[in-house]
Amino acid sequence: MFFTQLLTVLYVFTAVRASALLGNSTAVVPSPNLVPIAPMGNVASVQITTGDTRIFYQDSTGAILIRGVTAPFLSGGTVRAIQSLVPASQVLPYTPIAAITTNTATYTAMRVYFFSRENVLSEYIWTGPTTGWTGGPSCTKCLTTQGIVVQNGSEVLYAMANTAFNQFRVGFISAGQPATISEVENLGSGWGVAAYA
Ligand SMILES: *[C@@H]1O[C@H](CO)[C@@H](O)[C@H](O)[C@H]1NC(C)=O
Ligand SMILES: *[C@@H]1O[C@H](CO)[C@@H](O)[C@H](O)[C@H]1NC(C)=O
């Protein structure tokens, strides 16, 4: 069932935005500036108040990559450099991906969620340009260390932050409670988990 997704190519248009009239597919024409992106499965994204955007996706190697664009495609965004975020060894093939950021004018924080090959709910954290990204086995602050196991085969994953940002929730199907969704919540002081009830 995933082979069609493997063949999916998500095009990032950088030059044809002005002519991309809704409802007229002939107006969307590949341009010399087109940047091909080939996700193998799920894609998540965040933007800050300027429209500066980060797109997270798993490519055919199994790694999770970051693509940036300075603004919405239709508003003249230009492509930022590609960056590899999570090594394939830490990522379940066809994992769902969720991401949150702060509602600010510059990127001060981001959090990205996905499943490991052992079905562990996993997190990478970005805390600013100085510290960059942290995640993987060495990240003691990451949700990953909680060892929360999701139901095998589940594709449910969502994340949301409130205005305090250090307070956020991640929803998933727990292996221990597969009949409903569960949420892990961080109120800034630690993690708690509860099923929908
Ligand atoms: C759709 O695109 C074609 C080809 O560019 C153009 O001739 C036509 O006027 C467009 N139609 C609308 C409704 O924009
Ligand atoms: C999940 O289920 C698949 C198919 O039954 C199995 O091959 C795989 O080992 C399971 N993964 C885990 C982590 O249990």
Automatic annotation (TrEMBL):
Residues 1-18 form the signal peptide. Keywords: Signal. This is Fucose-specific lectin. It comes from Mycena venus.
